[in-house]
Amino acid sequence: MRIATWNVNSIRARVERLVPWLAEARPEIVLLQETKCLDEQFPREPIEELGYQIAQVGQKSYNGVAILARDRIEDVRVGLGDERFERESRVLSAQVGEWLVASVYAINGQAVGHERYHDKLAWFAALRAHLAERFPLSEKVVVGGDLNVTRDDLDVHDPRLWHERILCSTPEREALRSLFELGLEDALRRFHPAGGVYTWWDHYTRAFERGNKGLRIDYLLLSPPALASCTAVEVDLAARRGLKPSDHAPVVATIG
DNA sequence: ATGGTGGCGAGGCCA
């Protein structure tokens, strides 16, 4: 089976890319971020017609996360259980068959030192506590999403340009590493240890079109039992090409 | 190229 994560940057704007992608890739579980719509605006029908169940939580204009699955989606939980962060729709977790999954959209942080940067670091601490509580590592766990941080300079096309900037600062990377220390493994890096595999390219600077000037900020974090049956993790660059792409590409793990 | 895009929603915020 396959489990994917994709920041679609508005599901209403991306449904014409998402639906053909689902029909072609046919992942069993899909974790979406930045759906950017209220519940009643979510384009359920074309996704359900492909055989997917949908769990999602959204808000007007910003954020929003979803889980799509061909199996029943059960035990759905919204948020981190931390009242400081419940105003924004950034975390959705559920059980799908034997899998415990979460779709996660980290705070961007705007700039190092910005008020939102400090929010981001506090949010990561809350995420870590939530994962420690809700995701026993003896289970098959997949935490996927846009974590808005590079692991190290192997995730950066131009480390000198990005040195200690937002998405690349040492405190953000330490916050990310605290998730690994729970026992969750960065599956994309496991299968691409040399790095240079990116998942996001800035629209503003036309970073994809100018030649793969990307960052890797999207993750599939796997527990040991999930990793043991994982045979490949790839970034689907075809989804980043063509008409009206998201600024992120999907990350797809083949498991079992 | 110190410029430039994209989404939402209707002017500015966010990424």
What this model shows, in words?
It is a single chain. With 256 residues, the chain is an alpha+beta fold. The chain is 25% helix and 25% strand. The chain has helices spanning 11-25, 44-48, 115-134, 159-162, 170-180, 187-191, 224-228, and strands at 2-7, 29-33, 53-57, 65-69, 73-78, 91-96, 99-105, 140-146, 185-186, 218-222, 230-235, 251-255. The protein has a 6-stranded mixed sheet. Helix 3 packs parallel to helix 5 (170-180). The termini are close together. The structure holds one DNA strand of 15 nucleotides.
Which spans of ≥5 residues are poorly predicted at pLDDT below 50? none
Number of helices: 7
> Which bin fits the share of residues in helices?
25-40%
The total of beta strands comes to: 12
Beta-strand percentage range: 25-35%
- The helix-and-strand class reads alpha+beta
Principal-axis shape equals globular
SSE pattern: EHEHEEEEEHEHHEHEHEE
Q: What is the mean pLDDT? A: 98
Q: How are the strands ordered across the major sheet? A: 3-4-2-1-12-11
Distance between the termini: 6 Å
Main β-sheet: number of strands, strand sense, barrel status?
6 strands, mixed
Using only C-alpha atoms, the radius of gyration works out to 17 Å
Oligomer: single chain
